[in-house]
Design goal:
The protein is α/β, with parallel strands linked by helices and about 250 residues long. The chain has a domain at about 90-150. It has seven helices and ten strands. β7, α5 and β8 form a beta-alpha-beta unit.
Length: about 250
Amino acid sequence: MSDIFISVKKKIYDNQQSSNSIQALKNIEIKIKSKEFISIVGPSGCGKTTLMNIIGGLIEADNQKILINNTMLSSNNCLGYIFQTSRLMPWLTVFENVKLVCRDNNDINNRVENILKDFGLKDFLNAYPNTISGGMRRRASMARAFINNPEILLMDEPFVSLDQPAAEELYKVLINYWKKNPTTIILITHSVKEALLLSNRILFMTKRPGSILMDYKVKSSESILKIDNKEIEKEYYNLLNDFPKILEGIK
């Protein structure tokens, strides 16, 4: 069980070309229950990826506090990452790409083989990334992110370049595996419908400097993992009717 508390006073980037600086984030405070699926939505440039990188320990901010079960985040914690591109090593096979990140060598070959089977890649263990489809590469990156049973899985727009059928197929793969192997997931997306479809809660952000504008609890069930299902369509239009400027970062 990994309850998470995230607090960021501010994050400022210095502009090396001038004396001006850019404040990306301010006064962020988020509480996430163990095994929740959270989506973060906000205008372009509002600091979504910056926030995710802070949570993941890739960058630091002023007066930040990232707690997992009341303990400061450290290298002892296990986090998984899925990015906008698969980021597979082209000179390694699918099997080798997943094996490369394994933290525990115990029964490693069987574990890698089994998780790739779970993600529908049973017949592509020895394939190289440039010989398989984009959807398969995304499956491999998901398997790689889950292989160490992460306490938190961070996903930065992993479906952004996929067409709708391919994205919906990956939704099913992700949710089916997550239900069997639950962990806390934080997803960045520009698609409100995608957030409604996949997550329990949506954190809407303001314009830069980004802060949490609204913490929205999703009402729809995830029984039909299709963007255009009627339940999602209804909640989407109700949400935008109640908060017409929410995607601009204004409540």
